[in-house]
Amino acid sequence: MAALVVMPMDLAPIMMSLRDERVFENGIDLATIGYALVALTVARMVPVAASLKGTPFTWPERWAIGWLGSRGVTSIVFAVLAYTQLPSSDAAFVIKVMGVTVLMSIFLHGITVEPVARWFERRPQSVAAVETEHP
Fold this sequence. Notes:
75% helix; 7 helices; elongated
């Protein structure tokens, strides 16, 4: 378990070596963008919605939690762990995908959080509806 702990001071040498690798030197290809979109949608939303089955959350609430839930920090930690263990070319790919996924997450969630919140504001859930759905 201790091997999964990443301390901020451990990141400095990794970040310095990333600077030398020029991960984004050739730009961002469609496969990387596609993977990031899958990670932000299906790979995240379906498991979250499934894990909330049996809770008092409605389906729209489950999908909102899946869409807006935190994922940047976890992506960064696992990318750093992969970077330290994988061969150089694979590690660079993981860092590239993580970077694109986190940046897309910041952008897409930033522009959608307010519309999602307003949608929920216009459609308040009644306690009776929630209790009927989940006795």
